[in-house]
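User: Need the bound-state model for zinc ion:
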Amino acid sequence: MNDAAHPQPVTGPSTPSVLQARARRVLAHLDAVLPDVDALYRDLHEHPELSGQEARTAAQVAHRLEAEGYAVSRDVGGHGVVGLLRNGDGPTVLLRGDMDALPVEEKTGLPYASRVRTEDGEPVMHACGHDVHTACLVGTAAVLARSRDAWRGTVMVVGQPAEETLQGAKAMLDDGLYSRFGTPDVVLGQHTAPLPVGTFMHREGVTMMGSAHVRLRLFGRGAHGAQPELSVDPVVLGASVVMRLQTIVSRALSPLEAAVVTVGAFQSGTRANVIPDEALLELTVRTEDAAVQERVLAAIERIAKGEAAASGAPRAPQVEVLNRGPVNRNDPELMRRVRDAHAEWFGRDALVPGVLVTASEDFPFFAQGPEHPVPTAYWFMGITPRKAWEEAPGATPQEKMAHVPGPHSGGYAPDREGSLRGGCESLTVAALVCLHAGDASVDH
Ligand SMILES: [Zn+2]
Ligand SMILES: [Zn+2]
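Assistant: Bound-state model below.
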């Protein structure tokens, strides 16, 4: 971490701070860069790729980083791209953008809407705004590369695959991201949100919940539907498990411990007159705290085994934790500095009070340095067109958010110009908070 770039207190637009002056120098290049950022965004939006299949997207990112003078490595942990720009002594700042899309059918009606389908006919859409993240990552990389006299240090640009499956960040780390390219001093990331375009939301400490995906296989004994006495009915067993799982949050946790347990899939049987052999349940678990997650997972296993025993099941259930995403915890000091810098750059009115988001991210894996934790900061950027926001009913942001298209919906359509400009500016300003001032900088 550096100490040369502490943002100054807000002093009003007529007396810009040192950091603002530096940001102005770097972002003076943004107008020249934005047309290509916009072209890249429209191209990515029209050609989305599912998690683990981001070959085309990664190639575009790698090509553009190389053109700006970055030393680029491809295929890091799958289709991950790493671009390094060493620019004198100073901290290493990792800028992360995720690149994958979702199996969602696009319903925005935009001229550059996705019509992509997989070989199985599954629709694919950038319904989580990762195309915005990737385009803004490339734009930020470009303005920093074009203003090397304004900052010192190393910029490590990371195009991450497979965020939606919570696998890509870990895969990149397991493939030697930090051992091959160096452990960064800080990691920065941002995500689109259904807030008004031009607004930003920051939260010190935990900003997103940790998650776990659990699969329960419950074993019964099949029989004729007319002879239940010969069976151990896995449908009834599964139903008991589903109901009992509802007591974890209500009875096993304190009201002050935030958690979600959702049974998103329950599959068993094919015919009315056949009692099946098995039931399969898939659960998602969200918690604000890692220790609470452990307790919830233990409770799930206990309930599944207990209900199976009560049913006289021939075998104990199989309990698999398929993937786990850690809690996304911002370094309070770093987050405060980024938020203050955004307040200065965008104005205090652009900041939305931070709330805990129950969705999850694999971004926090980047905090797991080989020797010590790496401070991370992750914030949300509003992308909802102003008109749509103003027309949405409700008084509070939370009420309005329920009436505008959100992430993972087929109608998620960012205000293009505002989102791309805002996203490039927010990531650049945050990077400058962490990088040292350059020799020819006005920062002295
Ligand atoms: Zn998503
Ligand atoms: Zn996302």
